[in-house]
Amino acid sequence: MVSSERLLAFAAMSFLLIVVPGPSVLFVIGRALAQGRRAALTTVVGNTVGAYVLVVAVALGVGSVVERSVLVFTALKLVGAAYLVYLGVRAWRKRGSLQAAVTTDGSARGGGLRTLWEGFAVGVANPKTMVFFAAVLPQFVDRAHGHVVVQMLLLGLVFNLIAVACDSVWGLAAATGREWFARSPRRLSLVGGIGGLTMIGLGVTVAATGRKD
Fold it and tell me: Which of 29, 113, 158, 203 is the most exposed place for a label (fewest CB within 10 A)?
C-alpha cells in the first residue's frame, strides 16, 4: 500500500492545488450566491463525485489517453466550459425570480438531483483536476508494493476528502453573505446576477486556459 511519507506528500500537494480557487470552487461560490447553502453543499457533493470519476478513470488507464491526446483533452475542456456558460446565462436570466424561490430557511427551492448533476458535470470536466490526476497521481504510487489501482483510488480519496472540506468552507462562507442580500429583492437579484456572471466568466476562463501543445 501507499507509504505514510508518500501519502502525506500527496496530501500536501493536493491541499496546495485545492486552496487555490479553480473551476469547482468558483462554481460552488456561484451556486451559493445564487441559491444558498443547501445548493452549495449539494454542488460540493456533485463536484466530489465527478472528481472521483476522474480518479477511477486514471486508475484504469483512461487518464493517460487524455494526457497524451490534445484532441480528447480539448474536447472535454470545451464541453465543460460551454456547460458553465450555459448555467451562467440561465442564472442571469432568472435572477429576478430568486426572491420568490427563497424559503424561510434561506435556501432556494429547486431540484436537488439537478443541482447534484450540475455539480458532477463541472467536477468531471474540471481541467485542473483532470491534468493533476493524470500527471501527478501516478507519481505517488509505489509500484513495488503492487495493487497500483488500489493505491491510486486511495490517493484519490484523500484528495477528495480535502476538497470536500475546503469547498464546503467556500460555499458556506458565500452562502452566509448571501443571506444579507436576501433581505432585499433588489440585492437578491444582484446576487443572482453576480452568480451567473461568475459562472459565465469561469466558463470563458476554462475555455481559454490549459494545454497549448
Answer: 113
